[in-house]
Amino acid sequence: MTSAADSPVTMTSEEVLALTSEEVQENAGAGASDTTQDDNVADLIFLQPEDIKKMKFDDTEEAYDFYMDDGLVKGFDIRKSDIGRDKNKVMIWRDYVCSGEGKRRVKSTERKREARGETIFNCRAKMRVKQDNVDGKWYVHQFDDVHTHETIPREYRHYMKGKRRMSDAVKAAINFRRAAGMKTSQIVNLAVSEAGGYDNLGYTRKDAYNYVDKERKEQISEGDAATALAYLQAKCSADEHFVIELKKDDDDRLINIFWADSIYVADYACFG
Question: Taking every annotated instance into account, which residue ranges of this chain make up the domain FAR1 (predicted)?
């Protein structure tokens, strides 16, 4: 027997639409772990290149997060670049570069649309990490901190990629309002209004659309898997020799299905 406190909460579309960001955060239970890293990031401004060259990381993702935070305090976005591998195709070094790295293709004089503003400046700033053969950690092998372009002014850095991290509470708010039938544009407009403007939002309109697209694709994928399993279960009911084997990943998501009907099983028994 369940008490009223244990019963699931049902909400109408109107009630969901009326939820504020704070209420969504409370309902999602995600607010407790959603802490800001601004103080830790700010400390990086005191690090000199010589200090960074002495650093080690547990893995390449930790190195990537560090370089992204370094870019935040200095005003440049970053991206993953080249990978070095040994003869067994195992990664042994990894480059992270300023997003201004590279050269823009020569402009066409016949293009119909106006070219976008320059974002690639052949910048040489980068960090390379290599794996230590002894302890397996990743150390900074190369660190170039000189940029060929102006960095992003402080007043615009909240638009930088590293600063635009959608919290679990924000994602929960989007999911709640999508379930209530709101369009993505309406969800973003409401969030902007609640935050008091884009400057306080913490993510861009494109970030929201990318998140919704990702969620939609995952839902479609899960639906396809459920349909396939239902079909195979029906085949099992009709064929006592029908065989199914499933393979799942660490997150319990279906990645492979093997099946064989009675005819295939009989053929294999006879011919191998």
Answer: 65-151
